[in-house]
Amino acid sequence: MTKKFSLLSASVMAVAAILASAPIGAEEVKPDVAVEYVEGGRAFTKDDIPTYFIAEDGTVDWPVFSGFRRYHAECHVCHGPDGEGSTYAPALKESALAMDYYDFIEVIASGRQKVGASENSVMPAFGTNKNVMCFVDDIYVYLKARGMDAIARGRPAKKVDKPDELRAEEEECMSG
């Protein structure tokens, strides 16, 4: 009887501790996506992390539009359209919010394998795929914008023209 009571008490106390550590009514912490500066046709946060810029009329910057295109060319087969996820792979729009930028890039470049009793998933490495790596920041900002609900599902209706700096960056990466 004492053993049962001890296990029950420990379980109740553990749940109480978890509940006590989470403020009631607290909202989920959203990542910092505020544009601090624009350089070379890309927007960045105060921490020098690529971010997105969407005008009040819904016009997206070129990296978001490019990210939409590249995501749907390379990623959606496993991860579902618009970063929503699938029965096969997780929603990357959520990963872009939950993961550190550098970890996100590392997983794309090096891949990831999780094998266990309840999980068996493999993300292939794309580090040598120029169609992914030359546009990885674009894919990231597109997914970040989707995760923040800054853009709706589907092809963005309005985009800025491709900046010359990004055209040159793409040509250099794809030819190198």
From TrEMBL:
SUPFAM superfamilies xref list: Cytochrome c
Signal sequence region: 1-26
Region (Disordered): 156-176
Record-linked InterPro entries: C-typ_cyt_methanol_metab-rel, Cyt_c-like_dom, Cyt_c-like_dom_sf
Record field: compositional bias (Acidic residues): 167-176
Residue ranges of domain Cytochrome c in the record: 56-147
GO MF term set: electron transfer activity; heme binding; metal ion binding
Keyword terms, alphabetized: Heme, Iron, Metal-binding, Signal
Gene3D superfamilies, A to Z: Cytochrome c-like domain
Protein name: Cytochrome c553I
